[in-house]
Design brief:
This protein is of the alpha/beta class and 298 residues long. It has 11 helices and 8 strands.
Length: 298
């Protein structure tokens, strides 16, 4: 598991994509030189790995670097490479015509970002790339950008670039899409939709990772007994309410897992972490992933 050159982690907003991508990257870094890539434009630093985010890779741990791809930097790098001996590239990038072209060409910026991703995965010092990808809708758009480019631009460097990117993304030997979800209906529905989208394109997709799984502590009768307690004190009433809420959460988790089983989809469960310190969260998730990838012998 996780042997592919490019591991893409996506899912609904807020389900734990960034945390899970960081944990998978930590896991991969033990075996191969790995770079964790984000398109995040909001944060100055990585939210869980305590390193600054920029276009140049920064070492976060042994074997693990982190890098942010932003469209402008990717475009600059591309133009510079295409015009290596020319001092003209700044003029080109600043020219009105170029900006009009970039803004008016749907998918151009995305293609440049994907091009950088492709370079990292195929022609860099890194052996593995883990992408903390945008959420499902945006990722679907991204995956289809090379195809749209190939249809719009029939020859030349953009066509060539788009072909290489498409070859990488759709190659099940080199690319895997991991689906992150919370154990609840909406997040699982979104994960299943993305899974179908990827399977339609014959991509390598899975597993679904159900994040923030809580222990299933109460039996139905126990909750009924608690609910039927007469005249509980305020403190006891509060404890009962907490127990009922946790029981209901566990029921909704079971429902989410059953949706996946019914669709014949493998899923993993990662526990909800009680320690909210970012490094502790990533350490726990990495540890939990490792136990699934390499189950301990009894
Ligand atoms: N297993 C877990 N246990 C407890 N808290 C978690 C767990 N996984 C993630 N979190 C918390 O959930 C929140 C969202 O996680 P994260 O930022 O990784 O999600 P995301 O999918 O990347 O969000 P976004 O869509 O905004 O990029 C964070 O505050 C994180 O600390
Ligand atoms: Mg995120």
């Amino acid at each position: 598991m996780f042997e592919e050159r490019l591991i893409i982690v996506s899912g609904k907003g807020g389900v734990g994509k960034t945390s899970i991508a960081a944990a998978i990257a930590r896991h991969c870094a033990q075996f191969r030189s790995t770079v964790l890539v984000t398109f995040d434009s909001q944060n100055e630093r990585h939210p869980f790995l305590d390193v600054p985010l920029g276009y140049q890779p920064v070492v976060a741990a042994p074997g693990l670097s982190v890098l942010r791809v932003d469209a402008l930097a990717a475009i600059r790098e591309y133009v510079r490479r295409k015009m290596p001996f020319s001092g003209l590239y700044d003029a080109v990038l600043k020219s009105r015509m170029f900006r009009d072209f970039a803004e008016a060409s749907p998918g151009f910026e995305e293609l440049m970002c994907l091009g950088k991703l492709n370079d990292l995965a195929t022609a860099s010092k890194f052996e593995q790339v883990v992408l903390d990808a945008p959420s499902t809708g945006h990722l679907k758009t991204l995956i289809d950008v090379p195809k749209a480019t190939l249809e719009a631009v029939r020859v030349g460097p953009l066509n060539h670039n788009a072909r290489r990117i498409q070859d990488l993304l759709l190659d099940p030997e080199r690319t895997r899409v991991v689906l992150a979800a919370l154990p609840e209906e909406m997040a699982v529905t979104e994960a299943l939709e993305l899974r179908n989208f990827c399977r339609d394109r014959r991509m390598n997709v899975g597993p679904v990772i159900l994040n923030q799984w809580v222990p299933d502590r109460f039996a139905v009768e126990e909750i009924e007994n608690l609910r039927n307690l007469e005249n509980p004190t305020d403190a006891l009433r509060a404890a009962i309410d907490c127990s009922v809420a946790e029981f209901e959460l566990a029921q909704s988790q079971r429902h989410a897992a059953a949706m996946l089983s019914a669709a014949g989809v493998d899923y993993w469960r990662l526990k909800r972490c009680v320690n909210h310190q970012p490094q502790a969260l990533i350490a726990q998730l990495t540890n939990d992933i490792e136990k699934i990838v390499f189950p301990p012998h009894d």
